[in-house]
């Protein structure tokens, strides 16, 4: 029996079929829009990765509407505030993330756009304390409630 080095083991694990994802070209977008594609034909289009890519697709007006809806929701919930930028401030970049939400029949139910912060440009010790708020998902909340009940924890207000 041969001894395999760690590098060989990891190399063997990393091998596998990788299928490239084809980008929608402007020509394909033109052909789809020229043929008068209905909303059901938009299901085959990939979700755009950038704002610029979303503008090049034939369903760009639907992505734009999703962005407008998201900004309106942020303003309604008072989670969006435009402030004056000062010299000492470090602005964290953001980007739009797009997704098509499908219903049970496989057709598009709605377009979703999210404005997310790109946290990869934070500097240790400078902007970590003001960047993000912890968010608890449903599973985490259930676990906390189960442990609290198991330990007979009482909350006081």
From TrEMBL:
InterPro entries: RVT_2. It comes from the Eukaryota. Residues 77-148 form the Reverse transcriptase Ty1/copia-type domain. It holds the Pfam family RVT_2. This is Reverse transcriptase Ty1/copia-type domain-containing protein.
């Amino acid at each position: 029996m041969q001894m395999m080095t760690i590098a060989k083991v990891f190399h063997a694990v990393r091998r596998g079929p990788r299928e490239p994802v084809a980008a929608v070209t402007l020509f394909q977008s033109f052909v789809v829009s020229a043929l008068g594609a209905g909303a059901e034909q938009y299901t085959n289009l990939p979700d755009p990765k950038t704002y610029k890519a979303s503008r090049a697709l034939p369903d760009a007006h639907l992505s734009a509407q999703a962005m407008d809806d998201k900004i309106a929701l942020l303003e309604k919930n008072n989670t969006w505030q435009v402030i004056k930028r000062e010299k000492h401030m470090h602005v964290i970049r953001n980007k739009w993330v797009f997704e098509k939400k499908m219903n049970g029949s496989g057709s598009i139910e709605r377009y979703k756009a999210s404005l997310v912060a790109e946290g990869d440009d934070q500097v240790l010790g400078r902007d970590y304390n003001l960047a993000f708020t912890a968010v608890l998902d449903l599973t985490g909340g259930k676990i906390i409630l189960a442990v609290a009940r198991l330990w007979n924890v009482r909350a006081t207000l």
